[in-house]
Amino acid sequence: MKSNLLRGILLLLVLCSLGALAYRRGSTTAQEPESITTVSAMHPLRTDLVQTVEVTGELKPYQQVDVQSLVAGYVQSMNVDIGDHLKKGDLIATLEVLDIDRQMAAIKAAKRGVELTVSTNRAANAATTAITAPFDGVITKRNADNGTLIQTGVYSSTQSMPLVSIAQDDLLRGSFPIPESAIGKLKLGEEISMSIPTLKRVSKGKIARFSNLVDSSTRTMEVQVDIPNPDLAITPGLYAIAAFPVEQAPGALAIPIQAVRTPDNPSVYVINDKGMLESRSVTLGVETPDLVQVTAGLGEKDLVVLGNTSELEAGMKVSPKITQPSATQPPASAKQP
C-alpha cells in the first residue's frame, strides 16, 4: 500500500512539473509579438511619360561658303579678318581688275551667253570690283592680304583661291544619326531638347528635315534640327546630345521601375487589406529612367511594395511605410550604342 502511495505522489509531482512547464512556455509565447517586416510602399501615380532616344551629333553653321571672285585681280584692300561678324552686303574686299572687258567676255562665252554682271568702277583699262558678304555670318578663314593675286573662280582649270570663308552662326543646323528603330516615330517641327557638355547648357531646337536614307554601315538616318542662336553663345562645330521623343503616354498610371520584380514576366508585390503580401502580374508600357507605365494589373488605390523584394514572399505580414515620389520626371533615355 505504501508503494502505491509513493507511486501516486510521484505521478502527481510529474504532472505538476509538466503543467508548470507548459504554463511557462505559454506565457513566453504570449509575450513574444508576431514578427512583422516593414517595407516601403506607394500608390501608383498619374503622370505624363515620355520615352526618348539620346543621340550625339554635331552643331554646324546653317550655311557656309568659300567666297571667290568672279574675275581675276589683285586685292586692293582686305576689309575683314577671321572672327569678324558681317551683315549681308557688307564689304569683304576690293579687287583691282585688269582688262575686265576681255575677262567678262570670256566668262560669258564659257557660260554660253548667261547674263552676268559685276559691280565695278572703271578707270582707263582697269577697274575695281567689290566682294561682299552673301549672308549674315562670321568670317572663319581669310586666305588673302593686300596685293594678293586672286584667280577667277569660274574655271575649274585655274588654281583659284577663295578670299574668305563665311559661316552663318545665328542659326545652327544640328546633324544627328538616328537609329533605325526610331525612324517613323519622329515628326517634323517637333521640339527637341539637347545638352551641350562643353558649355554646360541646355538648348532647344525643332526637327527640320530627314535625309530619308538609312546608312547601310551604321543603320542610322540623318535627322537635322534647327537651333536658334541669336546671342551667338553656341560655337558651330560643338557636339550636343539630343533627346528625341519616340513614345509618349499622357496621364499614364505609373510606378517606380524598382517596384517591378521580373522584367521578362513583370509582377509586383501588393499589400492587401489584411496587411499581407500578394504577387500581382502587370502589363507595362512606356518606360523612363525612373518610372514605368502600367497598362493592366494595378489600380490607383493599390499599395505597391518598392525596393529589394528578394527576402519577401507572398503571404507575409508586412507594415507599409508610405512614400510618394514626385510626378515630375526627366525623359527616358535609350542611348545609342
What key attributes describe this structure?
Elongation Factor Tu (Ef-tu), domain 3; six-stranded antiparallel β-barrel; OB fold (Dihydrolipoamide Acetyltransferase, E2P); 22 strands; rod-shaped; 337 residues; 2 helices; conserved putative lor/sdh protein from methanococcus maripaludis s2 fold; 3 domains; disordered C terminus; five-stranded antiparallel β-sheet; mainly beta
Describe the structure.
- The structure is a single chain.
- This protein has three domains: 37-51 and 249-322, conserved putative lor/sdh protein from methanococcus maripaludis s2 fold (Beta Barrel); 53-61 and 170-246, Beta Barrel (Elongation Factor Tu (Ef-tu), domain 3); 66-167, RNA polymerase II/Efflux pump adaptor protein, barrel-sandwich hybrid domain (OB fold (Dihydrolipoamide Acetyltransferase, E2P)), CATH 2.40.50.
- The radius of gyration is 39 Å and the shape is rod-shaped.
- The protein has two helices and 22 strands.
- The strands form five sheets. The protein has a six-stranded antiparallel beta barrel with strand order 2-12-15-14-13-16. It has a five-stranded antiparallel β-sheet with strand order 7-8-6-4-10, with no helix packed on it. Strands 3-11-9-5 form a four-stranded antiparallel β-sheet, with no helix packed on it.
- Strand 14 (201-215) and strand 15 (220-228) form a beta hairpin.
- The protein is mostly beta strands and 337 residues long.
